[in-house]
Specification:
heterodimer; A: about 270 residues; B: alpha+beta; Alpha-Beta Plaits; three-stranded antiparallel beta sheet; globular; binds iron/sulfur cluster; metal ion binding (chain B); transport (chain B); 4Fe4S_Fe-S-bd (chain B)
Chain lengths: ~270, ~400
């Protein structure tokens, strides 16, 4: 792994984060000037992975280049991800994990802990939740860049710390849900640009997980609502979950068949 | 025959193991009259202990509306159905069969070893709830029972019970003296801690037989399919070891919960709050004592609910318990000590092991005798002017 590799990784994560965020002037400028595609292709090329290269190519082909087309992306974005148009594709990790927000506060704490450990915090005007896609991507971008910097400095233990953190973060967080996120985007979106982008991020995360020896346990497909089987052909409004209790039925399966009342103490049974 | 003495049913009873009581027994009193089903307890347990994968369906603490709610669904009617009609004698001794007796098994013949294939506890009456049974923790919430009710129906103060009623039943593991989960486990993974009577499942020994899930009639042992282990309420033992009350007790908004040690009747200490309510005032009763487990969570029955329903749930002491509670509430001198203790309930995160009621206040002490709570017998009341001149506004609330 060369110093350049990390710079290119950092750039890809950064570009993906920018592109998945609510489209703004910064993105528009990057797209219209062509910097977005140039940098994306250059960095994907530098990472020497054919699949990644192909997927980056797809993104470049579908990226809007004139202001009108960028505007259209904005409305696509809102339809897919934005609350203003009831976008239903979630950009939050917890939405892909079992349980719900209130039962997953430990996950949020863990992610915030990662950010904090590297001295990062949300910009004052940013109220996003810690498990948001763009924050996670930007975090990896930051760590990748830091790796390159420490590498240049010859700071080996520093490099160790940041590479371990990237492995851990991919294994515990990003790597667990990106495959599900990509699937959702492929299934539910018709917008070629976002489909290509999700596929690119999936590959990037996959090769990085490999790179750092991370073995993320990908979340299972979202389990059906417990009431689903009682409600016939009612595809919307059939889910009664209030969103606070974890009423998801747990999957069964892999159950193996399994004088005094057994007593014990603090160390366990006697 | 392995006979043990179960004081809650007033007689000896058969049980898979010989009697062995821990040095101290984790115990609790819940005053149902005060529970508002805010589920703060449920969430405090959930966020502390069961937020992991495979635990989505677990509510070690749950609050259900009676008579129609239940988690797992129908746990109470299921087990009562299986036992069939049984009777209490007029002397308060239970004449029916417990879940350990109804299948007429001689527990002495039971081969106890830690062979997984030897289901020595399979004759404990019980059932394993279906997956769906765990999926609706709020089923039946706020659904009332009884007769219809007009908007102008007046319930006189001396009226026994309400024509239409429901009540909230908060439930945790009872850390039973004769724990069926431990009695049923083929590999002795479920055990009772000698120092505090908390019943735990040793995750290293658990072989996923789920016999504890089947045997616990309260539905408080739950299978975790992600870990392939059964899990249950741990009584918040790390806090209990520090002299504190469990999470679901400390966070209870209604202050309905008192944690402490409970003794068998012959060792009862009238200055111990749990012993006092259970054995002295007899205002707190066990949940389904007829099942035979000697559960250690005791309930002050709801006074607005018809006695017949409460009788099947809490046993023969219900009528007297309701009377005693009403008398304490009214302020009868005879029940002053109980009234003081009811004020003290839920007032501190420390375990009150001794208490005393003086002329002005009720005081709680921890295990070392330090004062951990003080509450006045009469709340001071202040009345303010209706008009707040300083802010040029009328006050809605003046007391
Ligand atoms: S926190 Fe207390 S009042 Fe609220 S539901 Fe639980 S037991 Fe009832
Ligand atoms: S309530 Fe159930 S799980 Fe708890 S000790 Fe009793 S039998 Fe075991
Ligand atoms: S005692 Fe602790 S573990 Fe048990 S239900 Fe209450 S909070 Fe949960």
């Amino acid at each position: 792994m060369t110093t350049e590799t990390h710079v290119h990784r950092a750039r890809l994560y950064k570009l993906a984060s920018l592109a998945f965020d609510r489209p703004d002037d910064e993105l528009e400028a990057a797209l219209v000037s062509g910097d977005f595609t140039t940098q994306l292709l250059e960095s994907a090329d530098a990472l020497a992975d054919d699949e990644l290269r192909d997927r980056a190519q797809k993104v470049a082909e579908t990226a809007p280049t004139d202001p009108a087309a960028v505007d259209e992306r904005y409305s696509d974005w809102a339809t897919l991800f934005g609350f203003e148009k009831g976008g239903e594709i979630q950009q939050y990790q917890i939405e892909y994990s079992p349980g719900t927000l209130v039962t997953s506060t430990d996950t949020l704490a863990d992610i915030s802990g990662f950010y904090k450990a590297f001295g990062l915090s949300l910009a004052a005007e940013n109220r996003e939740r810690a498990d948001h896609l763009c924050l996670q991507l930007e975090f990896l971008s930051h760590l990748a860049l830091q790796t390159a910097y420490l590498d240049l400095d010859g700071d080996e233990s520093g490099v160790d710390i940041v590479t371990n953190a990237q492995g851990d973060f991919l294994e515990d967080h990003l790597g667990r849900w990106i495959p599900r996120f990509n699937e959702t985007v492929q299934d539910e979106s018709h917008v070629a640009f976002y489909r290509a982008l999700a596929a690119l991020v999936e590959r990037l995360v996959e090769i990085d997980a490999d790179r750092f020896d991370a073995d993320p346990d990908v979340f299972a497909e979202t389990p059906p609502s417990p009431t689903e089987q009682f409600i016939n052909d009612d595809s919307d409004g059939g889910d009664f979950r209030c969103g606070t209790c974890g009423t998801t039925p747990s999957p069964t399966g892999d159950q193996e068949p399994a004088q005094q009342l057994p007593m014990g103490d603090r160390d366990g049974p006697y | 025959m392995a006979e043990v003495y179960n004081w809650q049913i007033g007689r000896e009873m058969e049980f898979p193991y010989a009697e062995s009581r821990p040095e101290k027994q984790w115990g609790a009193v819940f005053d149902i009259n005060k529970c508002i089903a805010c589920q703060t307890c449920t969430m405090s347990c959930k966020t502390t202990w069961t937020h992991g994968e495979g635990q989505e369906h677990m509510f070690w603490n749950n609050v259900e509306t009676k008579p129609y709610g239940g988690h797992p669904i129908g746990w109470d009617t299921e087990i009562l159905d299986r036992l069939g009609t049984q009777n209490w004698g007029s002397d308060g001794v239970y004449e029916g069969d417990t879940i350990f007796e109804t299948n007429d098994v001689d527990w002495d013949d039971m081969l106890i070893d830690d062979e997984l294939g030897n289901f020595h506890g399979e004759d404990i009456e019980g059932y394993r709830p279906d997956d769906q049974d765990w999926a609706h923790p709020n089923i039946g919430e706020d659904e009332p029972a009884g007769e219809s009710f007009e908007s102008d129906t007046h319930i006189a103060e001396e009226e026994e019970t309400h024509p239409m009623w429901f009540f909230y039943l908060p439930r945790v593991c009872n850390h039973c003296s004769f724990a069926a989960c431990a009695g049923g486990c083929p590999v002795q993974a479920a055990y009772k801690r000698n120092e505090d009577g908390i019943v735990l499942i040793d995750e290293d020994s658990c072989q996923a037989a789920q016999e504890c899930v089947r045997a616990c009639p309260y539905g408080k042992s739950v299978y975790n399919p992600a870990e392939s282990k059964s899990q249950k309420c741990v009584g918040c033992y790390p806090k209990v070891e520090q002299g504190m009350v469990p999470q679901c007790f400390e966070n209870c908004l209604g202050k309905i919960r008192q944690h402490g040690w409970v003794n068998p009747p012959e060792e009862a200490d009238p200055d111990n709050p749990i012993d006092f309510m259970v054995h002295e005032a007899e205002v707190a009763l066990p949940l389904y004592p007829q099942l035979g487990l000697e559960p250690n969570v005791y309930y002050v029955p709801p006074i607005n609910v018809p006695t017949d329903y409460l009788f099947q749930m809490f046993g023969p002491g219900v009528e007297e318990a309701k009377e005693t509670y009403k008398a304490a509430r009214r302020g009868d001198e005879e029940h002053r000590k109980l009234r003081g203790l009811l004020h003290l309930m839920g007032s501190t995160e420390w375990r009150i092991e001794q208490f005393e009621v003086t002329d002005e206040e009720a005081i709680g002490y921890d295990g070392s005798g330090s004062t951990v709570a003080r509450v006045p017998m009469e709340e001071p009341q202040y009345q303010r002017e209706h008009f707040d001149a300083q802010n040029n506004a009328y006050r809605l609330d003046v007391t």
